[in-house]
Amino acid sequence: MDSDQELIELVNQGDPDAFEALYRRYRDWVYRLAWRFTGNQQDALDVLQETFTYLLGKFPGFSLTASMTTFLYPVVRHISSTIRSKSRRFTSDEEILGELTAPALKDTQSSRSELAAVLTVLPDEQREVLLMRFVDAMSLQEIAKALNIPIGTVKSRLHHALKRLRQDRGTQDYFLE
Amino acid sequence: MTEKKGHFDEDLDLRISPKLSEDLNTLFKPQFSVPPELDRAIMDQAERRLVQRHWRHRIFHHISLWRVAAAAAVIIFAFSLNLTQEHGPSTSRTVPVKAQAVDIDRNGRVDILDAFKLARHIESAESTDKSLSPVLGTGQALQKQGWDINGDGLVDRNDVDLVALSAVRLDKNKGVL
Lengths: 177, 177
Fold this sequence. Notes:
The complex is a heterodimer of chains A (177) and B (177). Chain A contains ten helices and no strands. Chain A has 177 residues and is mainly α. The radius of gyration of chain A is 18 Å and the shape is globular. By secondary structure, chain B is mainly α. At the A-B interface, helix 2, helix 3, helix 5, helix 7 and helix 8 of A face helix 1 and helix 2 of B.
């Protein structure tokens, strides 16, 4: 399988198949992130399309200096913010979590709804780093680059987020050996 | 709000249970997948743009090459003209040299031997007649041969120089009379 760099080189030479391979590789990642930022499917699909249109506009002459996710994360976040403000269908990830903690859900998915409840009370910065690490599968270096913050700050935020999950009675079961 | 920062230079324990990882991913997983129509739309857009840009880039590249080649040809031509003028006869010898007139030995070629031959004729004429003025015998004979190349009424060293110059020029152009 070609690396991202190899695919980018091919797209720079005008190869649409290489672009399709890149798209297939990152489509679900971008869509999930967009859905988390916008909170609804239609906006997430718009963000997905605009993100890849933006990426397409970078060719030819595009060179990747970090990982693809590090490049895409701020793009998805910015486009999501623009689309959210246009569409007024605003639902933050906090609101998504709020829906998940509703009593009807609690009965059937108690541990998950407890987790959602704890996540809603985490500061935004800590929740974002936690989700980037464990949902978006980004390394600490990638998170630091994508958010343009020092790696020490990433570690600090992650440490506090995990500490809160460990200490909360609703989520401490996740950390029992 | 101020952010608490600790020292996290040591490796942060980032291990979480598979259950926590799974529940986080489930919480933030979009309920719908990306419709194939959107995939197709993005890929069509990519194909159109990449192919279009690729050809535009190639055509522009070719046009640029032709432009450079044409400019180079013009410069070389202008330079060679300039060289020709620089090496041309001085104002005292501005009469254009006819190629036929310098073929001293009448062998159909103008070469350095013609210059030598003319020089020898002049030398032998000088030994018999110190002056090569048009009114004098041997000089007049040389003139009748048509060897007054620069048309100044004298057959002398200047004419030899012109023959030599013609020989060099014609040799450069590989010219034969």
